[in-house]
Amino acid sequence: MAYKSCRPENFGAFVTRHENKLYRTALAIMGNAPDAEDVVQDTFLRAYAKAPEFETVEHEKAWLIRVTVNLCKSRLRTPWRKRTEPLLDSYPAKEPKQYELLEYVLALPPKYRAVIHLFYYEGYSVKDIANLTGQKESTVRSLLTRARQKLKSVLKEDDYESI
User: In 66-97, which positions are buried (b, 16+ CB within 10 angstroms) versus exposed (e)?
Assistant: First the structure.
């Protein structure tokens, strides 16, 4: 039986259920709040207009994250995006060391930020990330390895102790 929770009468609850996860994902990839908010809004507009009938809640969540990741990639390809933004105070970090580590993560190129965020912060497996981003599992593993190496070299340069 098909599951469709983004019907107009349920849409407010649908948005409330997914907005934080989608925002964190978009913020990790985009690197700034205004772009992340725009991506999340566009994701919900797409869900309202043309979401499929979902089989399960997990299918719904996976579809939304995939749309979010794809919209982020599209926005990052635009020429005016060649700028950097400082880490926002609103990005989730409980301790100063975690905040500092998040700054390093957000300094990574977007393709690495996306897999790091989905793997470590959202708890997805390599297989799930491959499905969400439309990449091969081997590509996701390579991106994770390269991202970890980049972080390790930067952290070693700064004599950063492991958390």
Answer: ebbbbbbeebbeeeeeeeeeebeeebeeeeee
Encode pLDDT of 92-112 as tens digits: 555 666 667 777 887 888 889
- Tell me the three state secondary structure of residue 3: strand
Structural domain span for residue 149: 8-157
34 within a domain of the structure (yes/no): yes
Q: Please state the domain count of the chain.
A: 1
Is residue 46 one of the residues assigned to a domain? yes
Domain with 30 in it: what CATH number? Answer: 1.20.140.160
Residue at token pair 């098909």: 2
Model's pTM, two decimal places? 0.60
